[in-house]
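Name: Solute carrier family 7 member 10
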Amino acid sequence: MAGGEQRGAPGGPERVALKKEIGLVSACAIIIGNIIGSGIFISPKGVLEHTGSVGLALIIWVLGGGVAALGSLCYAELGVTIPKSGGDYSYVTEVFGGLAGFLLLWSAVLIMYPTSLAVIALTFSNYVLQPVFPNCIPPYNASRILSMVCLLLLTWVNSSSVRWATRIQDIFTAGKLLALALIIIVGFIQIFKGNYEELTPSNAFNFWMTPSVGHLALAFLQGSFAFSGWNFLNYVTEELVDPRRNLPRAIFISIPLVTFVYTFTNIAYFTAMSPQELLSSNAVAVTFGEKLLGYFSWVMPVSVALSTFGGINGYLFTSSRLCFSGAREGHLPSLLAMIHVKHCTPIPALLVCCLATLIIMLVGDTYTLINYVSFINYLCYGVTIIGLIVLRWKKPKIFRPIKVNLLVPITYLAFWAFLLIFSLYSEPVVCGVGLIIILTGVPVFFLGVYWRNKPKCVNRLIESMTCWGQKLCFVVYPQGGGAEEEEAPSARSWRPASETAARK
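Structure predicted for Solute carrier family 7 member 10:
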C-alpha cells in the first residue's frame, strides 16, 4: 500500500500507514541534524580536560568519527536486513527476544531520550536568553519556560505533518552547517595569518597532565556524546523512500562530513583560544566569536540556538518512532502504536515523549543525568552490534543487501569493551546507577508484558484508556505491522481485553 493511502474493510475500522516521505536529502539531514546539536558546543571542554593536550584531543575527535563510522556500517546492514522502524530496539528484540528489547526500550523511553531532549532544549534557551542577560546566567524559570515552549511547539509541528518536520530538519541542518562552516573558515583565516601556535607539534603535544587509560576512556565518552545520533535514521526506516539504497547512502555521506566538521571546528577553536581559555569557558563558541568576530559576535549564540532547535526536532521525530515501534510489538500500551487518521503521524507517542521530557526538565538535574545517558547509550550500541554477529550465526541464509566484513563489528566491539571496562573502573557510581536504571525494567516487563492473564478490571481500564486516547487524538491502528497481525503471545498481554471495542 502506498504511504499515506487509507484503506479499510467494508464496515471495518479505517486503516492507515506511516508515509514514506523521507528521501536521501532528508535522510542525511536527520543523521547530521541529530548528531550536530549541543554536543560540539559542550564536549570540546570535556575532551580537552581529560586528554591533557591539544593534539591528543584532536586525535580523540577523529577516532570518535571513525568509531561512529564503524557502528554506522553495522547499523546499515541491520537496517536493510531487518527493515523495521525502531532502530536498536527492533534489532535487539529480533535477535535476543522480548526481555532484552524491552530493557533497551525502557531505558531509552525513561531516561536516554527525555534527558537528551531536555539538555538540548535547555542549551537552546540559555543561548537565546544570553543577549537579554549578557552579564549573568539566565534565570532558572525563564530558561525552563522557554525550553518548554520550544518543546511544545515542535511537538505540535511533528504531530501535524511529517513533511513539515522533515522540512524543519532540512532547513536547520543547513543552518547549523553554515554556522560551523563560518567557524572553520575564520579558523583557516587565522592559520593563514600565522596564528596557529597551539597547533604546532611541540605545543599540541605539550601535556600539562599525563592522562591515564581511564582519562582517555572518559574523554572518548565525552566525544561520543557529540557524535550520538548517528544511528537515528534506523528509527524511521519504514518512512524512508527506498531504504535499501538510501539508508547506507545517507550514512556514507553524513558520518565523514560530521567528522570533518567536528575536527576542523576544534582546530578553529584553538586558533583563537589557548587550552586554558577553552577550559575556563562555559560557552566555547561564544568565546570564539567574541575574540574573532567583533561586532558580529552575536552570530555565535544565534547559530547555537538554530543548531539546538534542529536537534530538538530531530530527537522528537526519531524518539517518537521508538515508542511507536515498542507499542506495535506489544512492549508498550497499544495506544502508542496508533497514528492520526489524516496526518499519519504517531501523535500519542509524540505526546509521551514530550511529557517525559517536561518531567525531566522540572524534577531532574539534567547535566548530572547526561553521564548516565552516555553510559547507557554506549551499552545499547554494543549489545546491538553483538546482535549482528549473533544474527549471522543464527540466520546465515537470510537476505542481506549489505554485508559488512566481520572485522568491522569486531573492531567496534573492541573499542566498546575498552570504553565500558575503564568507564566502570573510573566512574563506578555513574555506571552502577546506569545499570540499575536498566534493570528496573525487569519487573515492569513481567508485570506488563509477560503476565498475560491479567484481571478483567485491568483489561477494562486499558481498553477504556485506549478508546479515550483514540477519540482525543483522532488516531487508528496503522495498516500492517505487529499491531494487528501475527502478534507474539507476550505482546497480546498489553492489548485490551476486547480488541474490537478498542479499535472502534
